[in-house]
């Protein structure tokens, strides 16, 4: 009996936290997304009064509608923001992979006594506030910033480049901020790889480059997939980086969501945007979980 109770508690506590910290807030946001904007506190209607009981709940459900979701399909701002977020997140993920793979490969091939230090250097930026690190890029990328000063000093350019407040600055900020999330899974996959497989491939006539494409890359694919999801998923909903480094033309759904909540005070539309964003993110999350399950089955 005690074992059964212990097993139920072990399984039930995570589900309880999932219910309390995810499903309940999601239900509240979903309800607000089906409401109408109002000049009141809170700024939407209808609201539920516990004293009204079941009759009040029935009356509330009758008043809910999908007008806000229909509005999202009719206004170009929202679907262009979704598409722009997908584009920026995808390009940023590819750039992060191109930079992170050589870093992870070098770390995996480094002498074993160096690896802890190299890992610490990858994790070191997390010891500083994310907001401060993004602000630092403003000083680097602005017209009179360090990057333009260096390029002009070397003689590569004559006039300062306009990098800040462009999509290029957003790409730089996302790649810099999320690079560790790409490097660490890649390093984990590459570090566990059996070096004798490369030796066998070269003994069979493969060149170093051919052995990389036929042996190293396929074996590191779980790390590539995991790192790509860890970068792509949060990058879609990023708000701080496009707000500080991007310009007025930089459309990302995180900026649109913030503007609806705090500038327009349109909580129902903002909630509808948030629900659709969550549904958009569920797709890569489910794909990631399926990939992890297949990887575990392959190891067994």
Helix count from the secondary structure assignment: 14
Structural class computed from helices and strand pairing: mainly alpha
Largest sheet, described in full? 2 strands, antiparallel
SS strand fraction: under 5%
What is CATH's topology name? MetI-like fold
List how many beta strands DSSP finds. Answer: 2
SSE topology string? HEEHHHHHHHHHHHHH
- Rg over C-alpha atoms, rounded to the nearest angstrom: 25 Å
Mean pLDDT: 86
Give the CATH class.
Mainly Alpha
Shape: globular
Order of strands, main sheet, comes to 1-2
Proportion in helices: over 70%
Name the CATH homologous superfamily.
MetI-like
Q: How far do the termini sit from each other?
A: 32 Å
The CATH architecture name reads Orthogonal Bundle
Question: Which spans have pLDDT < 50 for at least 5 consecutive residues?
Answer: none
State the oligomer. Answer: single chain
Transmembrane segments: 7-28, 86-105, 117-138, 169-190, 211-236, 267-288
Pfam family, one: BPD_transp_1
Subcellular location: Cell membrane
Membrane topology: Multi-pass membrane protein
């Amino acid at each position: 009996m005690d074992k059964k109770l212990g097993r139920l508690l072990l399984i039930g506590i995570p589900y309880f936290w999932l219910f309390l910290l995810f499903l309940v807030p999601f239900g509240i946001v979903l309800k607000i997304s089906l409401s109408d904007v109002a000049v009141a506190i809170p700024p939407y209607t209808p609201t539920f009064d516990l004293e009204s009981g079941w009759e009040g709940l029935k009356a509330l459900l009758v008043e809910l509608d999908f007008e806000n979701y229909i509005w999202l399909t009719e206004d170009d701002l929202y679907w262009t923001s979704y598409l722009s977020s997908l584009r920026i997140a995808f390009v940023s993920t590819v750039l992060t992979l191109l930079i992170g793979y050589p870093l992870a490969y070098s770390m995996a091939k480094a002498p074993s006594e160096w690896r802890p230090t190299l890992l610490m250097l990858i994790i070191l930026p997390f010891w500083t506030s994310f907001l401060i690190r993004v602000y630092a890029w403003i000083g680097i990328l602005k017209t009179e910033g360090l990057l333009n000063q260096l390029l002009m000093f070397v003689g590569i350019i004559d006039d300062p480049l306009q990098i800040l407040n462009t999509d290029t600055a957003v790409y730089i900020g996302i790649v810099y901020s999320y690079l560790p999330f790409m490097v660490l899974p890649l390093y984990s996959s590459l570090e566990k790889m059996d070096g004798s497989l490369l030796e066998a491939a070269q003994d069979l006539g493969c060149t170093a480059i051919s052995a990389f494409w036929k042996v190293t890359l396929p074996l590191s694919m779980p790390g590539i997939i995991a790192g790509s999801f860890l970068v792509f998923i949060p990058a879609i909903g990023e708000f701080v980086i496009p707000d500080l480094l991007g310009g007025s033309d930089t459309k990302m759904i995180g900026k649109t969501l913030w503007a609806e909540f705090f500038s327009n005070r349109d909580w129902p539309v903002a909630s509808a945007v948030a629900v659709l964003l969550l549904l958009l993110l569920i797709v890569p999350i489910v794909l990631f979980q399926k990939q992890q399950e297949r990887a575990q089955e392959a190891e067994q």
